[in-house]
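Q: I'm building a small set of examples for a reading group on sequence design. Run inverse folding on the following structure and report the sequence directly after it, with nothing in between.
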């Protein structure tokens, strides 16, 4: 298990402000003593935050006021193609494109692109001609703390996941047309759910 982006940001902020670490921050520090990946991610955050504060581009006092949005997954749509970019090292966010069989002559060629999750058989992203469905297993993903951000051009829309009692999963379904020719979908959240 790795430390979340928000926990690393919190610890980096405490170091920049030269605060005494609380028990949670000490636990993060103990984890980093054994995990090179988390330690490297922390060092990058600390160096960046420290240098931004030194040139007065950022104030460490605003860290607690501004929840930091962590983007876990980006879905980029360019014309008809869909690409998934994972923004976290957690294997829970691995979505793998499933192969499509060729449609026989005369059959419907508007087959959906499906990306299945490597950690949960119930989680997937399904891109159809007219809509996109994102389903997340509540046992694996903290969907109540996640939001969907859909950007196309200057427009940004925000969606919540809703709980589907039939599948016992969280879902978001929306019109693919809102992505336009080039659009981006981000699945993001903050540690405190804001």
């Amino acid at each position: 298990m790795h430390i979340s982006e928000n926990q690393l940001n919190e610890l980096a902020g405490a170091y920049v402000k030269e605060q005494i670490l609380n028990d949670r921050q000490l636990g993060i520090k103990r984890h980093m003593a054994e995990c090179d990946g988390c330690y490297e991610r922390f060092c990058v955050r600390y160096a960046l935050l420290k240098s931004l504060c030194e040139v007065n581009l950022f104030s460490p006092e605003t860290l607690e006021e501004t929840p930091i949005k962590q983007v876990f997954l980006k879905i980029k749509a360019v014309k008809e193609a869909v690409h998934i970019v994972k923004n976290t090292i957690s294997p829970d966010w691995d979505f793998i494109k499933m192969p499509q069989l060729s449609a026989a002559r005369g059959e419907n060629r508007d087959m959906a692109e499906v990306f299945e999750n490597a950690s949960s058989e119930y989680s997937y992203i399904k891109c159809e001609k007219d809509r996109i469905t994102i389903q997340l297993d509540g046992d694996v993903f903290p969907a109540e703390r996640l939001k969907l951000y859909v950007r196309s051009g200057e427009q940004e829309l925000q969606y919540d996941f809703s709980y589907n009692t039939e599948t016992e999963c969280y879902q978001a379904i929306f019109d693919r047309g809102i992505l336009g020719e080039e659009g981006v979908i981000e699945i993001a959240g903050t540690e405190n759910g804001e």
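The mean pLDDT is 79.
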